[in-house]
Amino acid sequence: MTLKEVVKILDCQVLTGEEELDSEVKVGCGCDLMSDVLSFIKPGALLLTGLNNPQAIRTGEMSEVGAICLVRDKQPGDDMVALAKENGIILLTTSLPLFDACGRLYQNGLVGHSEYKG
Description:
118 residues; alpha/beta
């Protein structure tokens, strides 16, 4: 699934990386506990989270995520947006709750950690 499709499915606002929306994500992860992200996320994954602080970007950088989508209409501060740009992380936001966002993506073919075969 491309990030352009993610943006459409979740009605996202694109905060960084608009020129990279043709990038593909093959697996998704919905999580607010960054220690779990570090344990389970796959490189290039889409991370959906309600954690609205620079720690989400730093965790994404360490985990080599493809993009981060903030849920529940979280609007990051300028420091978080700047950190995402600096690290080449695509940053999105959606008004949907975490469960709904993950469900919509799964319904449209994006798998999670347990089903990913890559």
